[in-house]
What we know:
The protein has helices at 2-12, 65-70, 72-75, 102-114, 130-139, 170-183, 193-208, 215-220, 225-232, 267-279, 298-314, 400-403, and strands spanning 22-31, 37-45, 53-58, 80-85, 123-128, 146-152, 163-164, 167-168, 257-263, 285-292, 326-330, 335-339, 346-353, 359-360, 370-374, 409-412, 420-434, 439-448, 454-464, 480-493, 498-504, 530-537, 540-541, 543-549. By secondary structure, it is an alpha+beta fold. Strands 13, 14, 15, 17, 20, 22, 23 and 24 form an eight-stranded antiparallel beta sheet that branches. Strands 1-2-4-3-5-6 form a six-stranded mixed beta sheet, with helices on both faces.
Amino acid sequence: MSLTSRILSRLMKLPPAETHDIRITRDLQVPMPDGVTLLADHYAPRNGPKRPTILVRTPYGRRGFFAAIYALPFAERGYQVLMQSCRGTAGSGGEFIYARNEHQDGLATIEWIKRQEWFSGELTMIGGSYLGFVQWAVAAEAGPELKALVPSITTSDFNTFRFQGGTLTLENMLGWSTMMTMQATTGLQLRNMLADNQRQRRLEHAYLHVPLEEADRIAIRRPSRHYQTTLAHGQHDDYWKPVDFSATVGDVSIPIYLQGGWYDLFLDWQLQDYQRLRAAGRQPYLLIGPWYHGQLASAPTMTRETLTWLDAQLKGDRSHLRTQPVRLFVMGANTWRDFDDWPPPATPQRWHLHSGGALSTDAPADAEPDRYRYDPSDPTPAVGGNSLGSPKRMGAKDNRTLEARPDVLVYTSAPLAQDMEIIGPVTADLYVQSSLEHTDFFVRLCVVELSGKSINLCDGILRLSPEQPDQCPPDNAGVRHLQFALWPTAYRFRRGQRVRVQVSSGAHPRFARNPGTGEPPATATKFIVADQSVYHDPAHPSSIVLPMCKNSVT
């Protein structure tokens, strides 16, 4: 254990350990009020005074990778860590039901910790993704012993992220749900890797299967409760109220450090949590790196930042704490930069779509709309982006093959005469027409490098249907004015590079394809081709709005 931790600490460039003499007490039984028992492992320095306690609650198992990341590095640096398996996972009793027991189980666990003789009276929680959500599930009611939180790559609302722009995030939900159905009881262990590789191969077939309500059986040859629940209860179903803690975020007054990635699937919702805290008068810390969800390259930075921040909050050592609370990695410049708030000051600038595939800040001239056909039987594929699934569809990728498809419109600027920097939210402002009432529009911002590679930076999708009263209705000519958010980004375009915008009608399987029929996603089996038009003339000035930072020029 000591050799492994030393190697890991060196690879992650962690500060020196206080001790490598760690006592590990396995399989502690933590009783829940309903009689279910959850298991936990306790890590603590063998000698010395009582230390602050870090609670990590996870559905992925208490040993192996998660212990190496969340337990040992912190126990060796002056904390005790309680790693607990969530209900129905890795030996804990009961049944794992997506996100629904974490409030009561988390609070019961905290009350149990308070009664332990080793507890110092100081508690914090850390962890990413589901391990971050469980922090929000208890944060507002945990009591004065809870001193700080570090929710990473996560959100307080485990409902809304299942959909984006009204479209089911198919790859996220089918992939994660089937994984949990297979591995919840044992956790993520090496012996599961072969089965998981087989599941990944079958998933590629499952994504294309109709109806979608059978896709879990294609992937793992049995139903997945988590996936079926996602299909059965839509985004606005009251069923999801118990897994949404966004309304209580502003009630949490303790120090909070939010950590995320520009390509993370939770990014936009995590930034909404930041804004909720700011609206309540809080000043959380914020870190956003160039990572996708779960990227191993993020672990060293996040761990170092967490240690420094916890030392400041729980040990009073502020010698290494930065003065500005927001730290962002500016891609293109490939550097970290600190700010007082999110988003940093920026001036919105419109980049207009033009005929011939041009993109510029000039207003468009009279021109016919551009047209393409979207065929859901041959859906426009996802290439990179904020997803969770196959590595070939996560993060920054070369989009040139995608852009060569006839169902993708591409608009590209002239080479930039000078460097240009954007940091913050990006917005699509489109005038479109469709032959169908039920359809999607997908917009993506890319940088075209000097080599010709087109690298995705951020994107957004919007599902249109006559059942959505808040969407702009078509005018007398059938043209609709769409305004929707792309996700935020931070990028420094270099002189000679070009700005590119894609317009299409999907990114499959990241988003469930729109069959065009208006049928429910779970049961739809028929497909209708959509004829799409994108307008760019003085009456219909389609554009993308970029947050230009101070001293940015074009």
